[in-house]
Design goal:
With 381 residues, the protein is mainly alpha-helical. The protein has one domain. The protein contains eleven helices and six strands. The chain has helices at residues 8-44, 49-90, 101-114, 147-152, 155-170, 173-202, 221-262, 265-275, 286-289, 310-321, 338-349, and strands spanning 45-46, 93-94, 120-124, 131-134, 142-146, 209-210. It has a four-stranded mixed sheet with strand order 2-3-5-4, sandwiched between helices. Strands 1-6 form a two-stranded parallel ribbon. α1 packs parallel to α6 (173-202) and α1 (8-44) runs antiparallel to α7 (221-262). The longest helix is centred in the N-terminal third of the chain and has 42 residues, at 49-90. It is elongated and about 70 Å long. It starts with 7 loop residues before the first helix and ends in a 32-residue tail after the last helix.
Length: 381
């Protein structure tokens, strides 16, 4: 791993691989269309497997413009409304310099140092430690952080996290990931549609017509439906794996970009160590968690993990950026800081002090009948 802004060959290679993954996702949409056509033909016609496959292929050719148009329309809708949807499900609110001067100044300084347009800055009132970048164009780009991250990380660590998210924006990772999520959503929609068709039609499977071809034969419907189900399952699993591979690939370069921006590999390492295991946004869907600095949600054998393990990311920073790994970092409970606890314990141990000081003892030369006031004996003029 090397600095993302310094080695453009790494960035361009990452973009080419990302585009290839997106094309692969788009191809899986057509696989789903073919599987649906094959299942439909099998439910309607009693014919041989060869005849059903040829009929399904003709149906797919006719459906390609509609499938392409529908997918593009889905992407356009996401292009227009995805940011408002993200803000709605996460509760993110846009903040100004006056509301968050510390955070705003850190981000502004990073942007000025590299001539990067300032994205919008948003905050989620959440105890978890996490952040993410979102948006599909310059007007939409935003960086969102949680209040928990702001409370538990120092300025250098927050700056490193902001540099990480700025790198995602600069390298085009945010746009790629959002489009991948949208296309994967199309695949999931097709999969659910075909499965519903199979469940509703399969329970009363009695092909109503025989094919008109004299050499078509019969009995291929069961095999055709099995093939359709297999294609749907494979396409759905591949869409998940490709999407997660797209997410994992970008994290190492984003970590490197943060180091290149801040010149502080140790800050990025300690930020990752503090975020480790503390980034779960419980109310947020998986699509949002995939965009975060770290996603603690993962599947078996790391196959469905959207992010590399923190240990691997830290090891890369140590090896290639010269950072130092402090190991896992223990943080005090967020609800009661140490300073407040000490102050409250002292208040309980000591009796309350009166607002006015205690009266001093009467002086020996005080004239009789002269009562001392709260600030000392009264004098006579």
């Amino acid at each position: 791993m090397a600095a993302a802004y310094g080695l453009y060959s790494h960035i361009q290679s990452n973009k080419r691989r990302s585009i290839a993954l997106l094309l692969g996702l788009f191809f899986l949409v057509y696989v789903m269309v073919f599987a649906g056509a094959l299942a439909g033909e099998a439910l309607y016609y009693d014919a041989s497997l060869d005849w059903l496959i040829r009929a399904a292929w003709r149906d797919t050719i006719h459906a390609l413009p509609w499938a392409t148009g529908g997918t593009i329309l889905w992407v356009l809708i996401a292009y227009r409304y995805h940011q408002s949807l993200i803000d709605s499900v996460t509760g993110a609110r846009e903040v100004t310099r006056k509301e968050e001067p510390r955070l705003y100044n850190l981000l502004e300084n990073l942007c000025i140092s590299r001539g990067i347009p300032m994205p919008k800055l948003k905050v989620i009132d959440e105890a978890a430690l996490n952040a993410f970048a979102s948006g599909l164009n310059q007007k939409q780009y935003s960086i969102t952080v949680t209040t928990g991250l702001l409370d538990r990380l120092d300025d250098a660590e927050v700056e490193a996290v902001l540099g990480h998210e700025l790198t995602h924006i600069r390298n085009g990772d945010v746009r790629m990931l959002v489009i991948a999520l949208v296309i994967a959503g199309v695949i999931g929609f097709f999969a659910e549609l075909v499965f519903r068709m199979l469940m509703e039609g399969g329970l009363r499977w009695r092909p109503s017509r025989s094919s008109s071809s004299s050499d078509s034969g019969k009995g291929g419907g069961f095999i055709a439906i099995a093939i359709a189900i297999g294609l749907i399952a494979v396409a759905w699993l591949l869409s998940i794996v490709l999407r997660f591979a797209l997410s994992r690939r970008r994290e190492f370069l984003a970590d490197a970009g943060a180091v290149e921006l801040t010149k502080n590999p140790d800050a990025m390492i300690t930020a990752l160590r503090k975020i480790e295991g503390r980034g779960e946004l419980e109310e947020s869907p998986s699509a949002v968690m995939e965009m975060c600095v770290d996603n603690p949600r993962s599947g078996f054998a790391d196959l469905f993990a959207t992010h590399p393990a923190i240990d691997k990311r830290v090891a890369a920073l140590v090896q290639f950026a010269g950072g130092h790994d402090p190991g896992q970092i223990e943080l005090p409970p967020p609800d009661k800081p140490v300073e407040e606890e000490t102050a409250s314990e002292q208040a309980e141990a000591e009796p309350p002090k009166p607002f006015l000081p205690s009266q001093p003892p009467a002086m020996a030369d005080t004239p009789p009948g002269t009562a001392p006031g709260p600030w000392g004996p009264h004098g006579r003029s």
